[in-house]
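Holo prediction. Input below; ligand is copper (II) ion.
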Amino acid sequence: MRRTVIFALMASVIGGAGGAQAHAFLDHASPPVGSTVGAAPSAVTLWFTQNLEQAFTSAEVLNAAGARVSGKARIDGANSLMQVGLKPLPPGTYTVRWRTLSVDTHTTEGSFTFQVGQ
Ligand SMILES: [Cu+2]
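Structure of the complex:
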């Protein structure tokens, strides 16, 4: 297991010098990127453009003060979506930060915000 992880990391560095391959980018999310939702969601779901490796794939949700309001991220059976549970959220702006290692051994990361409306 450990060896697999190290190999994947090395492959990632080597692969980074390569050409324009498709990586695991965020396709869409629920709540949608930049959206305002009336009711607080109980989870954030992220759909990616490629299957994900469990290792080094994570997401967290932060409130406006930078405090973490999410649980542990998990990848579903289809392997291309990640879900992270949320504590009950009061109205406010929340930041979702995600990081993936896709099955083609490339890493991607990004963030977006959504708002729980007043
Ligand atoms: Cu890639």
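Residues 27 and 48 are 5 Å apart (CA to CA). That is the main takeaway for now.
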